[in-house]
Amino acid sequence: MSRLHARLRPRPPAGDQHRAGPLTYVLLGLAALISLFPLYWNLVAASHSGERVVSPPAPLLPGPRLFDNLAFAWNQVDMGEALVNTTVVAGLVALSTVLFSTLAGFAFAKLPFKGRGAMLTLVVATMTIPPQLSVIPLYRIITDLGWVDQLQSVVLPSLVAAFGVFFMRQYVIEALPVELVEAARVDGAHSLRIIWHVVFPVARPAMAVLGMLVFVQAWNDFFWPFIALTPDGSPTLQVALAGLGAGNHTVDQSIVLTGALISTLPLLLVFAVLGKHIVGGITTGAVKS
Predict the structure, then answer these.
(1) Four-residue CA torsion sign, 220, 222, 224, 225
(2) Distance (Å, rounded) from C-alpha 125 to C-alpha 122?
(3) Which residues of 201-235 are buried (b: 16+ CB within 10 A; e: fewer)?
(4) What is the pLDDT of residues 182-231, one digit of tens each?
(5) pTM higher than the cut 0.85
(6) Residue 150 CB burial class (10 angstroms; 0-12, 13-18, ≥19)
(7) What is the pLDDT of residues 256-285, one digit of tens each?
């Protein structure tokens, strides 16, 4: 009888089965607060003097010096030029990495050729090599080419990444049926047309995610730009920040954190503008018809 009542009992709508409860919202709120607190404290520290920032207890409320610190940091190291240089470098690196990684990922995923497995293994193996090992030969190369303190010395070594190739290869394997490629070839489409009209539309969600990840990584990169560029030449933001707040014998931590705030704001703007499109692309690519 109980089974009969269970069968006759009306089932909740499909949407109610996945409705979040109060505990879910509490946990999400706590996670959001914990994630946003470092950015908030960066803003608080940038609005105080250096002495107040390093004096206990640490300030938790904004102070009156935010705009003064912003103006001082902006003019001390020519932050405007550094922003332009970083935007150019991060944009070119992201575009080239997405393009080349998508082409290579499609080749490794759907094009049969001799040595494909060995070449893929070699590409993935390069991810285990620390970047510090290539600094000396790479610096000698750019010195011989006369590229020291020029942006191409930062852009060209990062035109493609092994992680991007592997990432796109894994996505194309699952998202692009080989029958679709074969049907395009039967219709007379050449390789470039297949890539433009078949591969790129299918791989667009993964390309957006990869582009965002590479853009953020290139934006925050410090190690190689600090070696190849100088604060007095054409620095990126991270190189320019290394010269902020320097005094006779001390470093003004509030000015350093003000520069960090300036370098973070463009990334927040990019996420605010493109975040919905990236999440939507991931959702579209995850749902199979």
Answers:
(1) positive
(2) 5
(3) ebbbbbbbbbbbbbbebbbebeebbebbbebeebb
(4) 888 888 878 788 888 888 888 888 888 888 889 989 998 888 888 888 77
(5) no
(6) middle
(7) 888 888 888 888 887 777 666 666 555 554
